[in-house]
Amino acid sequence: MHIWVDADATPVVIKEILFRAAERVHVQMTLVANKLLRVPPSTYVRALQVPAGFDVADNEIALRVQPGDLVVTADIPLAAQVIEKGAHALNPRGEFYSPDNIRERLNMRNFMEELRGSGVAIEGPGVFSQQDRQRFGNQLDRFLARHT
Predict the structure, then answer these.
(1) Of 23, 38, 43, 63, whose CB has the highest number of CB atoms within 10 Å?
(2) Where do the H-state alpha helices sit in the chain?
(3) DSSP letters along 91-115, please?
(4) How far apart are CA 80 and CA 102, in angstroms?
(5) How far apart are CA 123 and CA 130, in angstroms?
(6) Would you call 38 helix, strand, or coil by DSSP?
(7) Can you tell me the distance from the alpha carbon of 145 to that of 127, in angstroms, rounded to the nearest whole number?
(8) For 86-115, what is each residue's pLDDT tens digit?
(9) Percent above pLDDT 90 for the chain
(10) What predicted TM-score, i.e. pTM, was given to this entire model?
(11) Looking at the predicted structure, is the pLDDT value of residue 60 above 90?
(12) Is the pLDDT at 66 greater than 80, yes or no?
């Protein structure tokens, strides 16, 4: 199992939780971003910088992910690709995407894009909270306990 992180939009606090988890359970983790990332010195953690561009990091993760891997992303289309390949997708707020909920999430995302495209002002997600952080940490711990 490998953990892939869509790192361009992942909050720093979530990256820090992931760094500690990779060390604790000895699992390989790669942060993928189109900017230079700092990662702690570790045999388990590495960063992969990809060229700038729309969905370049997402496409790289989708290309490399294997069944059973975990991908941390808030990008719903990437999560759909990951699930289709037999891997797991967890968003930074602690929600697992699954075959049961990904279609609904894609439909809602597309609907919101249509609204924004027609000029309707739509608020984005709320401020990242302590509850989000705790939910993510708890979900990650449960996942790693089952899969490592």
Answers:
(1) 23
(2) 12-25, 56-64, 76-84, 102-117, 130-147
(3) -TTS-EE-TTTHHHHHHHHHHHHHH
(4) 6
(5) 20
(6) coil
(7) 29
(8) 999 999 999 999 998 878 877 666 666 776
(9) 76
(10) 0.88
(11) yes
(12) yes
Measured in degrees and rounded to the nearest 5, phi and psi for residue 75 equal -85, 110
Residue 74 per-residue DSSP state:
S
DSSP class of residue 68? Answer: T
Which position has the token pair 């609907």?
A: 111
Residues in the chain: 148
Q: What pLDDT score does 132 carry?
A: 95
Q: What is the distance between the alpha carbons of residues 98 and 82, in angstroms, rounded to a whole number?
A: 10
First to last CA, the chain: 8
Name the residue among 115, 124, 68, 67 with its Cα closest to residue 93: 124
Q: Which residues pair with 49 in a beta bridge?
A: 33
The CA distance from 102 to 109, in Å, is 10
Rg for the chain, CA atoms, rounded: 15
The count of other CB atoms within 10 Å of the CB of residue 56 is 15
